[in-house]
Design a protein that fits this description.
- It is a single chain.
- The protein is 69% helix and 4% strand.
- The protein has 458 residues and is mainly α.
- It folds into two domains: 328 residues, Na+/H+ antiporter like domain (Na+/H+ antiporter like fold); 43 residues.
- A two-stranded antiparallel sheet has the order 1-2. A two-stranded antiparallel sheet has the order 3-4.
């Protein structure tokens, strides 16, 4: 409750702010991704500084430090770097899976009319960068980096776009979210199909059995998260042993979490009204909730009931987004963005086939693919631009689509796992292209977004 403190000052309890803060899922998603993008940028800067300072050797030794989990006979031993990329990133992929499922079932991708444009744009934004990279690296082991420039970093891109505030229509943010999610799905498919070295079919069968059990929990109406979490851990181990990248277990698990709310709306409203009446009666007997056990228990029951009425996937996406955005991704950035830069040979680095292919793919491939495919789809009458969005907006978003930090570096780690020099070139290309794409996209939209309300003909 509000209390007067001193002269004219009011104290507002945290729960009052919580009731006032009502965001729809998209607004909440954009807000968190924007903040995450800023934190991600800071961590990348710190990693780059450390990797080029007197602490560079300690930085490398820390990442290579072995870390063992388990008991004798049942152990997993990997370097800290591998635990971050194989373990922590599974949580990131789990959140991506929940976002994908929500968007496909009830979000922007659920309506074919609204989904067609971001899908076409995302396909173009994946296909053209790959073709550009392959044209520069047509053969040899450098060819393995073809998947790196196809990914857009949703946190960085949304963060850059959100900085423009009201200069860009909200529908443009919505379009970018849908595009980036389709882009993530494409990257996941590529990782599963093309970045798997060897397969252990026994482990694959075991993983399939776990998936069947998880589906059975869903169909059986099990809505508590604990059984899914426990089976999810077993699934992660099975996928890790199978040869398929372990992070994909997060996607598989996410698609088994129930999305359908299980409640009768009229009964729920009636119960809320009845419970509020009970809380009012308990309050009249004793105002202090610390002294009033009945009031406390009624409030707690109200909180549990409101929480359980939501779909389990909604609850988990809400709860897991914070650790994913503010812990997992920043740690991944700290562990993977540390690139030693030799400025004396920077020209050779930039013109290396790998870094050049990735930079050209992200900068020009995304621009041509996203904007070009969108323009073609609209001109052919297949779909239309979102309300309030014109082709100048689309060019800006296409430029920002070249920000490919998290997923691009992740794919580079897979593609060049046995080629340290090429991995260094790949990361350099990703960072350079992401910086140029973000700045150019921001400047383009800042200078042109508010100049006309008419859709220009291109």
């Amino acid at each position: 409750m509000k209390k007067t403190i001193g002269k004219g000052k009011e104290y507002i309890a945290p729960w009052e702010k919580a009731f006032d803060r009502v965001l729809n899922p998209l607004d909440e998603f954009i807000h968190r991704q924007t903040t995450s993008g800023v934190l991600l940028m800071l961590c990348a800067i710190v990693a780059l500084y450390v990797a080029n300072s007197q602490w560079s050797e300690a930085y490398v030794r820390l990442l290579e430090m072995p870390f063992t989990v388990g008991i004798e006979g049942f152990q997993l031993s990997k370097s800290l770097h591998h635990w971050i990329n194989d373990g922590l990133m599974a949580l990131f992929f789990f959140v991506i899976g929940l976002e994908l499922k929500r968007e496909i079932l009830v979000g922007e991708l659920a309506d074919p009319k609204h989904a067609l444009l971001p899908i076409i744009a995302a396909v173009g934004g994946m296909l053209v960068p790959v073709l550009i990279y392959i044209s520069i690296n047509p053969q040899g082991h450098t060819f393995d980096g073809w998947g790196v420039p196809m990914a857009t970093d949703i946190a960085f891109a949304l963060g850059a776009l959100a900085l423009l505030g009201e200069r860009v229509p909200k529908n443009l943010l919505t379009f970018l979210v849908a595009l980036a999610i389709v882009d993530d799905l494409g990257a996941v498919v590529v990782i599963a199909l093309f970045y798997t070295e060897t397969l252990n079919f026994t482990a694959l069968v075991f993983a399939a059995i776990i998936m069947i059990l998880l589906a059975a929990l869903n169909l059986g109406g099990i809505r508590r998260p604990l059984p899914y979490v426990l089976l999810g851990l077993v699934l992660w181990i099975a996928v890790l042993k199978s040869g398929v990248h372990a992070t994909l277990a997060g996607i598989f698990l996410a698609f088994t979490i129930p999305m359908q709310p299980k409640y009768d709306p009229q009964r729920f409203v009636a119960q809320i009204k009845e419970m509020v009446g009970q809380i009012r009666q308990a309050y009249l007997r004793e105002e202090n909730i610390v002294k009033n056990d009945e009031l406390r228990s009624r409030v707690q029951a109200l909180a549990e009931g409101v929480n359980l009425v939501q779909a389990p996937a909604q609850i988990l996406e809400h709860k897991m987004h914070l650790p994913s955005a503010y812990l997992v991704i920043p740690i991944f950035s700290l562990a993977n963005a540390g690139i030693p830069i030799d400025w004396s040979s920077f020209g050779d680095i930039v013109t290396h086939p790998v870094s050049m292919g990735i930079a050209a793919g992200l900068l020009f491939g995304k621009l041509i693919g996203i904007a070009g495919f969108s323009w073609l789809a609209v001109k052919l009458g297949m779909t239309s631009l979102p309300h309030g969005v014109n082709f100048r907006h689309m060019l800006g978003v296409a430029l920002m689509g070249g920000i490919g930090f998290t997923m691009s570096i992740f794919i580079a780690e897979l593609g060049f796992a046995h080629h340290a020099e090429d991995l260094l070139m790949a990361k350099t290309g990703v960072l350079l292209a992401s910086l140029l794409a973000g700045v150019s996209g921001f400047l383009w939209l800042y200078l042109t977004a508010g100049t006309t309300k008419q859709q220009p003909d291109l």
